[in-house]
Automatic annotation (TrEMBL):
Taxonomy, superkingdom: Bacteria
Source lineage: Bacteria, Pseudomonadati, Pseudomonadota, Alphaproteobacteria, Acetobacterales
InterPro entries found in the cross-reference section: AAA+_ATPase, ATPase_Atu1862_pred, HerA-like, HerA_central, P-loop_NTPase
Protein name: AAA+ ATPase domain-containing protein
Region (Disordered): 1-24, 327-348
Ranges of residues in domain AAA+ ATPase: 43-233
Species of the source: Tanticharoenia sakaeratensis NBRC 103193
């Protein structure tokens, strides 16, 4: 096994002369001796790192990664994009989860083990729910790799409480279960498959106990909450009265215990690193010499606001006035004084007028990214201004008309064949109906497949990667067939209708 590559900093602790090549230095103990990490033992017994924000957890992980980068294969789950610079320095492959489907990430997790490639999974540009799904898919692929590829891998998971939470948060139950299952497999069943989990968390109380309990090595940093201090002391075998010592640890100081670190709790100051984090640090920057008056026009520049075009006031019809007089101005007592006025039959509203209002709202700037419920209320308001009444259509009907209009299909082309395409769309989840109809319109017209930007607008997102993933979802629902060519062009066929886009 190759020896550890020394760091460039003159202050970096060097391994002891008698240390085996598989041991790496994590930092200095209070007696100035190196704290050596027995790498084979770490691979077999796993590691848990805990510390409040700013305690130096990411620095510790970076130190461990740099010291072992040329000794063992590595996989980093990076929710904030902090380790992309490290990856470039050591030649790791960076996978941006926003650009790939869950199926691709699962396959990547399996293939990186087959080819023994070190990988950083960057989740920086992915929404919380998709972060969990992407992590579950990638770890699942690593876990399900064939036995022939069970080479040792050091799996670093930063902010592990996000992927193995104790309780629900802003993510869906399905995504949380997938991620928690993958993290449990990593920590509980990963050892026999060569997977060594190194998980870091801000709070032990937020991390699922069945995930934390499988670690045999611990590095506990600065902690202020009583519940976390007590739990940290229990894990290190310390008396509870000693738990308050965790409040006094400085940034970059940890208490270490475990078969790969030390048989008794020891303090360690983490050594220096070669690479820098992408995150902003606590360093102070001087302000530019300027005054508030000089910045007034910049700071207080008027924001762009929506201004409705002027409309002539609608004149209520006589029958509407009669309804208002009968239902709105007569109280319960007045209704007994004279004969009740029969409400006239509601006048059917021309669907073309409603479609015109929906098109008007859909064409407004940023309408593609506004909630459907907001657009619906806007249409109802415009309908009242036009004198069409309060309830011209319900929300489900509005969603469907909006999806059809956003597909770009002309009104004169909405025939029986198009109704068949709409029937397929209405069987899909609401958020992908517009995407499907957009593809269906392009396929029916034999036009090129819509590009990523058009798909993103139809899906209501600014993320092109997230929009592309909807193609894989629609294909999994067996409503489209997707063919991607080596040139980067793609073709979509609509299942059951015989429509097909030109390749793009």
């Amino acid at each position: 096994m190759t020896s550890v590559v020394p760091l460039h900093s003159p202050h970096t602790p060097e391994p002891a002369p008698h240390a085996p090549s598989s041991a790496v230095s994590l930092g200095r103990k209070r007696d100035s001796a190196d704290l050596l990490v027995d790498l084979p033992e770490l691979l077999a017994t796993r590691l848990l790192v805990q510390g409040n924000s700013g305690s130096g957890k990411s620095h510790l992980l970076r130190r461990l990664l740099e010291q072992t980068a040329r000794l063992v294969q590595q996989a980093v789950i990076d929710p904030e994009g902090d380790f992309t610079g490290f990856a470039a320095h050591f030649g790791h492959l960076v996978i941006d989860a926003a650009d790939h489907t869950e199926a691709t990430l699962r396959s990547a997790g399996e293939r990186m083990r087959a080819h023994r490639a070190s990988v950083v999974l960057n989740l920086e540009n992915v929404e919380p729910d998709q972060q969990l799904r992407a992590t579950a898919a990638f770890l699942g692929g690593m876990f399900d790799a064939p036995r022939a590829h069970w080479y040792p891998v050091l799996v670093i998971v930063d902010e592990a409480q996000l992927f193995a939470p104790v309780a629900g948060g802003d993510t869906t139950d399905e995504a949380r279960k997938l991620s928690l299952g993958a993290m449990t497999n990593l920590m509980c069943r990963g050892r026999k498959r060569g997977l060594a989990g190194v998980i870091a968390t801000q709070r032990l109380a937020k991390l699922a106990k069945n995930v934390a309990a499988e670690a045999s090595n611990f590095l506990m940093g600065r902690t202020f909450l009583d519940i976390d201090m007590v739990r940290a002391a229990d894990l290190l075998g310390m008396e509870r009265r000693q738990a308050e010592a965790f409040r006094d640890l400085r940034r970059g100081q940890f208490v270490a215990l475990g078969p790969a670190l030390s048989r008794t709790p020891v303090h360690v100051a983490i050594g220096t690193v070669e690479t820098a984090s992408n995150a902003t640090g606590p360093s102070l920057l001087p302000l530019a010499p300027t005054t508030g008056e000089e910045l007034r026009d910049v700071i207080l520049e008027p924001a762009a606001t929506f201004s409705a075009s002027p409309r002539p006031r609608a004149v209520p019809a006589p029958d509407l006035l009669a309804q208002l007089a009968a239902a709105g101005t007569r109280g319960p007592e007045a209704q007994d004084d004279g004969p009740a006025v029969d409400a006239p039959e509601p006048t059917p509203v021309d669907p073309a007028r409603i479609d015109a209002l929906i098109r008007l709202v859909a064409e407004e700037p940023d309408a593609d990214f506004r909630p459907v419920a907001t657009l619906y209320q806007d249409v109802l308001l415009r309908a009242r201004i036009e004198g069409l009444g309060r309830s011209v259509l319900d929300l489900p009907a509005f969603r469907r008309r909006l999806a059809t209009i956003r597909s770009g299909i002309p009104a004169e082309s909405e025939d029986d064949d198009w109704r068949a395409a709409e029937a397929i769309a209405w069987s899909l989840p609401e958020d992908v109906q517009t995407v499907f109809l957009l593809l269906a319109h392009a396929a029916r017209s034999e036009a090129p497949c819509p590009d990523d930007a058009a798909l993103a607008r139809a899906y209501g997102t600014h993320s092109l990667g997230r929009a592309r993933r909807q193609l894989a979802f629609l294909e999994s629902r067996n409503v489209i067939v997707l063919r991607e060519e080596a040139s980067g062009h793609r073709m979509v066929a609509i299942v059951g209708l015989g429509w097909q886009t030109a390749s793009r």
